[in-house]
Amino acid sequence: MQTNITQALLKTPQGQQAQSILRSCVHCGFCTATCPTYQLLGDELDSPRGRIYLIKQVLEGQQPTLKTRTHLDRCLTCRACETTCPSGVKYAQLVDIGREIVEQQVPRGVIESTQRYLLRQIIPFQKRFLFLLTIGQMFKPILPAFLRKKIPSRQRATAWPQQTQPRKMLVLGGCAQQVVAPQINSATANVLNHLGIELLEAKNATCCGAVSHHLNAKNETQRFLKQNIDVWWPMLEQGVEAIISTASGCGVMLKDYGHLMADNPQYAEKASRISELVKDISEVLSNENTLPVKLTEKSVPRIKVAFHSPCTLQHGLQINGRVENILEKCGYQLTQVNDAHLCCGSAGTYSILQPTLSGKLLNNRVQALEAEQPDIIATANIGCQMHLSTKSSTPVKHWIELVEPVFEEKQD
Ligand code: SF4
Ligand code: SF4
């Protein structure tokens, strides 16, 4: 695609990056076929190709409008379009640039700005999130049914293993996940312990920064990134071999640290090293040679599992089929899920900011997941897990929770 980006923008790294991405798009439109918002709304401007065109116009100097911002807001950043695109267009990086510029030129009103500010001030902070969740749970019995479903129950963590192991890995504690579902990381620690790997948590690590990043708060995002890098770096120097993410949404963000810190001379190198060391827990288990032997010896009852592969896992991290493989090796029976490439509508804060579209996507996804009447729905991201639970009548768990008992029984 030909571009004519303004000279002022072309002098910035952002402008140059946007030009190179725009020029890689051949405007073929293949991406529209897998875009959830285009499928729902049928409007070219709610498709990847249409949004790319809108961003191009803005970068070329055209004044964006409320309509421009609305079409960009409706994008889930699910990146299904990137998986489909034959030209390798880095849509997510382009939409980040477009959103930042459009937001500056079409500022939000007080209500929207406040809502976004509050989300940024609550979700990434465990204590604040826990406080609000506790209040929500107190009033849950008197709330209408549709609101009751939206308040998650808190789960209990299993005991964290106490053994010291020769191999060490770090886990991202995370924010909301540790409050709502701390058993995900303890299950991960137990599984890794059986493989001779000790899972460590860095006490002063914080949220990965994804919430602030997706809500266009650039300085705030940088603060989260710097804090994590400062806390993790000494541990990496002491021989920690990987940083594990148990939420694919956070994993994508951590993988992006190198890119997001590229212009910061003090942090660029460390951030890039951290991105290299980040692994989703499914990657770690798939790479452990001992895993298939241990697991194939075990046969669990044929429990039917429908796996919801989060967009961040399949399109962001581009990890396909690994979780499914592990679950099958554990003896679980996986069901067929139609349109498995589609987003459930969770998408970070999307379910709060775009409730109508998110609700439609949720209904479609739950219907597809429950079609073969599974015993359990498994997923790999806390956001999807909580969102699917608001609609599903089938229990929704993180897949590692299904793997943990297999190892426990194997040891018995
Ligand atoms: S993003 Fe890719 S698939 Fe979509 S129009 Fe551009 S080149 Fe074609
Ligand atoms: S990221 Fe998802 S919603 Fe956004 S344009 Fe691409 S496919 Fe559509």
Layout of SSEs?
Blueprint: H1 7-10, H2 13-24, H3 36-41, H4 48-59, H5 66-73, H6 80-84, H7 91-105, H8 110-122, H9 126-139, H10 145-148, E1 167-171, H11 176-180, H12 183-194, E2 197-201, H13 210-214, H14 218-237, E3 243-245, H15 248-255, H16 257-260, H17 268-277, E4 278-280, H18 281-287, H19 290-296, E5 304-307, H20 311-316, H21 322-329, E6 333-334, H22 350-353, H23 355-370, E7 376-379, H24 382-389, E8 396-398, H25 400-411
Helix pairs in contact: 2-7, 4-7, 5-7, 12-25
The structure holds iron/sulfur cluster (2 copies).
* Range of helix content: 40-55%
Given as residue ranges, the uncertain stretches (5+ residues, pLDDT < 50) are: none
> What's the overall average pLDDT, rounded?
93
Instruction: Give the CA-CA distance, first to last residue.
Output: 61 Å
Counting helices, strands and paired strands, the structural category is alpha/beta
Number of helical elements = 25
Bound molecules: iron/sulfur cluster
